[in-house]
Amino acid sequence: MDQIAALMPLIILIFIMYFLLIRPQRKREKAINAMRNALKVGDEVITIGGIRGRIIRIKDEVLTIQVGADKIKFDVMRWAISSVNGKDSAPSPSKKVGKEESAEEDSKPAPKKLPKRMKRADAAPPDETKTAKTAEVTKESPADTKTDETEKATVQEDSQK
Q1: CB under 8 Å to 79, separation ≥6 — which residues?
Q2: Domain at 34, CATH number
Q3: Residue 75: inside a domain
Q4: Is 160 part of any domain?
Q5: In angstroms, rounded to a whole number, what is the distance separating the alpha carbons of residues 124 and 126?
C-alpha cells in the first residue's frame, strides 16, 4: 500500500503531461498532415521558410511552386508547406469551417482567368465616369503651372549665383 502511495504522484504527473502536452501535439500533427495531403494545383501556400507561392505541379512528395512577378518556379518537399492561403485553398488546420460555409463554397464555381490580352464577350464596357475622373486628374490646373514656373525661376537664380 505504501508503495502505491509513493508512486501515485508520478502516475498523476504522467497523466497530466499526456493531457496537457502529448495529446494536443498529436492533434496538431494530424491536422497539419491532413492539410498537406489535401494540397492541390492552384493553392496558395507558404513554406516553413516563409516563401509564398502558388502550386503548379504535384508529383508524389515534391511540389513545384511559382513565386513572384517573374514567375520563378522551384521544387519543395510536401513537408515544407506550413500553411495554405487564398480562395482556392483548403481550410488551414487552425480554422474550423461549418457545414453551411463549406457547402456554399463548393457550390460556387471558380471564375476562369483569361490572359491580359483577351477580353470576355460578356464583359461590361468600361465605366465612363471613371475615365472622366482620370482625365480630370491628368489635367493641370493653372495653380500647378504657376508653382512650376516659380520653381524654375528659383533654380535659374541659384544657378546664376
Answers
A1: 36, 61
A2: 2.30.30.30
A3: yes
A4: no
A5: 6
pLDDT digits (tens, 9 = 90+) for 72-84: 999 999 999 999 9
> Widest CA span of the chain, in angstroms?
105
Beta bridge partners of 64: 57, 75
Q: How many CA atoms lie within 13 A of 142 on its CB side?
A: 0
The 10s digit of each residue's pLDDT in 3-33 is: 888 899 999 999 999 999 999 999 999 999 9
Which parts of the chain register pLDDT below 50? 88-105, 131-135, 138, 140-141, 145
Identify the CA nearest to 37 among candidates 64, 66, 67, 58: 58
